[in-house]
Amino acid sequence: MSIKPVAGENESMNQMLLKRISIPNSADIDVAMAHGAYASVEKAYATRPVDVIDEMKRSGLRGRGGAGFPTGTKWSFAAMDPKMPRYLICNADEGEPGTFKDRFILEQDPHLLIEGMIIAAYAIRAVRGYIYLRGEYPVAFGILNRAIAKAYEKGFLGSNIRGKGVAFDLSVHRGAGAYICGEETSLIESLEGKRGQPRVRPPFPANAGAWGMPTVVNNVETLANVPFVISLGSEAYAQIGSEGSTGTKIFSVSGAVMKPGGYELPMGTTLREIIYTHAGGIRGGRRLKAIIPGGVSTPMLTPDHLDVKMDFNSLLSAGSMLGSGAVIVMDDSTCMVKATAVIARFFEHESCGKCTSCREGTGWLSRIYQRLVAGKGRENDIDVLLDICKKMKGTCFCPLGEGALQPVLSSIRYFRADYERCIRKDGCDAKPCKG
Amino acid sequence: MLSPGVIARIREARRQYPDARAAVLPALHLVQEEAGHLSAEVMGPIAELLDVPESDVFGAATFYALFRWKPGGRHVISVCHNLPCSLLGAESIIEHLSRKLGVAEGQVTEDGRFSFQRIECIGRCDGAPAMLVDDEYHGELTPEKIDELLARYA
Ligand SMILES: Cc1cc2nc3c(=O)[nH]c(=O)nc-3n(C[C@H](O)[C@H](O)[C@H](O)COP(=O)(O)O)c2cc1C
Ligand code: SF4
Ligand code: FES
Asked: Which of A11, A68, A295, A300 could bridge A410 with an S-S bond, Cβ 3.0-4.6 Å?
């Protein structure tokens, strides 16, 4: 593997989730256990499932998969549903372009994830769990399978965990290349062996998920936080982070920065600190032009937003979203028409085809962008793009379609001049577009 | 049509689920791993083995981007062309590969050694531009680095 195997250096005192990955062989169960892995299981087992759920609620932990739903509340919905068996699914689809945070845990600290899943399963009384892993993570697949086998050997999985009479079985289910399968109901369809297309909600997975049974779907990073909530206690945990967003967040920083990487920092760290202090600032002495704060489906921001705090509420106030925390940085050499064209093509490719609005709309958007970057822009293209967005808004079956609009709307809003230059060939006569 | 080894592994995978249909994706992966690609001919045997309608197997198999329907090269190169990689030169990497291998995207080289295709983000954006060769990641690609890398694959 020629890619550096560790996350960006990080001296932060608040590092929890990525603490172990700098230790050699951190994926090995003995190494992990020598550094605290599985210690929280017995602590959780010493309390009742409902106490674990209450502890999660008090911690303020919100889902790291994109929607930011409070984890304890989600668990309580499943736990209140009398149907059995219940399922626990880890969403390891990590499909939002720009995101690679879960990879660190999956490849380098799988036992942290398994530990979190054991506790989550106990809380909701699930006896069966699956890790839905994207097909593009073949290395993680091998590592997770070995880690699960070792966890069985040590008695952390199986029919009588650590002699406490608790049962939980776990295996990995591999996806096969479909961004939509990160959406939880599509993921469940895909787990069941079907085409990964979303289901109508409600009913929500907490009540009717996998095989119609109560199911909790949580992101890798969310589940990796669980052992820390238990070991630190909810009160201490809630001290970390910012208003409405407790804990740390692993930011995946990519694009035009000196040091791309995964940086675990307290929720509420500013974009400025992430980009300039941790990721080393902009490459090649260039100037910052645009920032996508949470993966390609979140609205773009500009250098004016550098002091925005990276947490759920602050990004909403700034007109964007935390999403997966994938910070994609673009410098002043980037044409935003070209950049948005790449994203539009992605959404066209990934639209699952279930609803007309998204299936046709993402195609229209993408075709206009491909024409623009081919140097064949038309005078009314901006209006047509905006009109398509207007028609798609609120008419898509699932959030993928809505996500596809965000880069279009935000890039037109902040970088209209790029579009005009592209269309009028004013100062840009590259044909085809060189970006 | 399915080898005894694959049949045994599909049966083993099936035990992970309360319902046989869930083993369709694992089965398709296993078949592709052995044969290099899927084909219409394997849909029936998979369906029979798991006792699900053939159309359901076919429906799933045609939904996912990572399932291939024609033979790839001995080594399959998948170059990421999503935004972070694109910002750092993915398109010129793709051009270079195409020139170097003498084939267009989706095609197999004459000696059967390589085929190459585009892929969406592979979660290696910190090493952009990045690609997968079979199950191995390579990042911070440059034309020189690619030349050097290709020489390592027989
Ligand atoms: C199109 C789309 C793609 C998504 N992709 C992912 C993903 O790759 N990983 C993930 O954890 N959540 C993803 N989600 C969010 C999930 O639907 C779900 O909210 C999440 O897994 C819940 O876990 P959490 O509460 O721990 O965040 C996606 C949602 C949508 C609409
Ligand atoms: S919005 Fe797009 S991805 Fe979602 S159901 Fe409709 S076509 Fe499928
Ligand atoms: S965009 Fe290429 S690996 Fe993520």
From this structure: A300
